[in-house]
Structure formats: structure tokens, C-alpha cells
Amino acid sequence: MAHRQSPEPRPNRLPSFIEVLDRKTKPPVDLFSFYIYMRDQQRSVDYLDFWLDVSQHTHLCRHFVSELRRSILVETPDLEKTASKRSSYILDHMGDSNDPSGPSNDAQNEEKIKDQTVSAFLRQDNNGSNHSPQSSLGSRRSASAMRYGERPPRPSFISRNSPTGSDSSSPGGRVVARADIRASAEKILYTYILPGAEREVTLPHGILQDITVAIEEEGRDDPEVFDMAKDYTFQAMERDAFPGFLRAKVFGNIVPPSRFLRLVLGLIAFFAGMWAAFILIFLDKPKHIRCWLILPFTIGVYSLASHQYHMDPLLALAGLSEYTFCNFSRIEEPYVRKMMMRRASMVLFITVSIGVALICLFIFVPGHRL
């Protein structure tokens, strides 16, 4: 797949998009922050939810095949000896499929082969006898619940400390059954793919048609059904949303509502300072009274600079970044923190310079009573 490229170690670089999706980054460039950015600023969180749900479906398939392999290796019942040779070969040569979804430098091709192996086995299993590591009673209940609108719990992408390799494909700790995979594929189809769906995503007509035919007519539910759509949404988010996300989180630490609030506050304080300054000058007030101009000019210049540079320098120097209005997180990504400190120092220097210049101008200019 196009996005399965192994990124190089990043001692002094910004994270790549796949690293963010694989939960290998820290705030403010983690998956939680990207989800909030897609929801609040891009207004296109359905694309990210689709990608995450397809990834969960892949985990579900891996977990099912892995558990099936373990059950066959442990029990080896007589009935399994008469099973399809192709299915037995696939199970014996797939290894442990319940691996992390993120790419690694040495395991990229191996992981892709595993995904293809899982899909091949599920297609074979769908055409032959339905294997299951557990009775399908619970799976029928879960499938029915999913069809009637109950969303299964997704791996907790909003958890900042969730490890990439956590086993999130078996919700609630129960064993995954074959019907769960079918229900998961249908849930994705009905939620994102079909025209007029609840959270329909915009995809090329050919991809939509292929997915619909594969699931509804061919009865497929393997991960390869969604490969083209997953790659398309990945590339769309990487091209259209991710650069803006990096700009917002690496070169700024406040969200648009905070920027607007600072603009309003800055304009009010600045014009109040100018109004008071001219009054004090034309009333020929002494300099110690004019020193009160420090307050409105400091607030005005600081707020306007924060709006202009998308950054509150004092919050940045304190190691804080805003992810929603008045909600802050620590800046934990090392390279981002270093860049943020440099930019905050620059913004603070500019702010102080402009503020001092204005204050000195209106304090020390000679007064003239009209």
C-alpha cells in the first residue's frame, strides 16, 4: 500500500503522518490532537473515523485468524484433518498476525504479506466451512447489535498513552467470531460507503462500486476489500489536512476561538491606550501619571502579537499547547518543544520591543495643554 513506508528515525525532524496515525508521537502532534483538529478546524473527521474503523477491522481479522491458528495447533481435532489443504497451509505459514499496525523498518514487507495472507484465508474460509475459535452465539448477538446501530468500542485513539501494539481488536476481552468480521465490514459499508449513509465519505465512484459489490454480492469481508479506499483517504488527509495540522501545532499553540478573542481584546486595549495617551498629552499630565499607559499598551500589543503569530508566547514557554478552547496539554514531543521555544522567544522579543517603543513615545513626548 502506498502509505506503508517506513519512516526514518526522527531525532531532529517533524513526525510523518503515518507516525501520528500509529500513535508513535506525543502531544501536541499526537493522534488525539489530530482528531480534534480534523473535527473542529477541518470539519472532515469522518475521513479519519473511516480510516480508524478500517484499521480496527483489519485488527479484528488478524485477531480472528491468529486465534483460529492457535486453537488448531493446540487442539488439532480429527475434523480439522479433513479441512481444506489451502486453509491449513495458510494457517501454518502466517505466523502470529496479531501484530501492531504500524510499519517498522524491517517488518514492512512481512506485515503486508501477513495482511494479504489474512485476506486470502478469509476469502477461502468464506467459500468453505466457517471456522471459529468459539461458538457463534455471542458473535450473532454482536453482529445484530452492530446492524441496529450500536458502534463497537474502537481502540482508544484518544488515550495519549495507548501503546501501538495493544490488542484492541477483541473488544471487551471476548474471542472474535467469524460473524463479527462480517458485521464489522457491513457496518463500515452502511456508515461510510453507501450513498446517503450517515457519515458518507467522498470517494471515487469506482472504489465505492468495488466495495459495494465485494461485500453485498460477493460476500467478502476481508481487509483487502477496503485497501483502495483506505489508501485514498490516507493520501487525502496527508495532502490536505496534515500540513495545516503541523503548522497549527508546531508554529502555534492556540486555537482559532482563542485567536479571535485575543484579536478583540488586543484592539480594544490598543485603542484604549491610544485614546488615553492623547488625552494625557493634551492635558499636559506629568510622566508618572502617563506610566499607567503601560497597562493597556502591554495588553494590546501582546494580544495582537498572539493573534498574528498564532501563539501565546508565555504559554509556549511554560510548555503548554491549547487543543480546544481553554483546554491545554503539555508539549511533550522533543523537537516540537524545541521549535516552539525558539518561536516563542522571537514573538516575545518582538512584543516587548513594540510595547516599549510605544510606551516610551507616549510617556516622554512633551505635553501640550489645549
Q: Strand arrangement, largest sheet?
A: 1-2
> What profile does the largest beta sheet have?
2 strands, antiparallel
- From the N-terminal CA to the C-terminal CA, the straight-line distance is 77 Å
What string, H for helix and E for strand, traces the elements in order?
HHHHHHHHHHHHHHHEEH
Mean pLDDT: 79
Q: In percent, how much strand structure appears in the residues?
A: under 5%
- Unreliable stretches: 79-92, 94-108, 129-169
Helix-residue proportion? 55-70%
What's the total number of strands? 2
Which structural category fits the helices and strands?
mainly alpha
User: Mind telling me the C-alpha Rg?
Assistant: 29 Å
- What is the overall silhouette? elongated
Enumerate how many helices there are, as a single number: 16
Description:
- It is a single chain.
- This protein has 370 residues and is mainly α.
- A two-stranded antiparallel sheet has the order 1-2.
- About 19% of the residues have low confidence.
Please give the structural blueprint.
Blueprint: H1 17-21, H2 31-42, H3 45-75, H4 78-81, H5 85-93, H6 108-127, H7 137-147, H8 178-193, H9 205-217, H10 227-240, H11 242-250, H12 256-282, H13 287-290, H14 294-309, H15 313-317, E1 320-324, E2 327-330, H16 334-364
Antiparallel strand pairs: 1-2
Keywords:
16 helices; 370 residues; 61% helix; 2 strands; mainly alpha; elongated; two-stranded antiparallel ribbon
Quick description:
The chain has 370 residues and is mostly helical. It has helices at 17-21, 31-42, 45-75, 78-81, 85-93, 108-127, 137-147, 178-193, 205-217, 227-240, 242-250, 256-282, 287-290, 294-309, 313-317, 334-364; strands spanning 320-324, 327-330. The chain has a two-stranded antiparallel sheet with strand order 1-2.
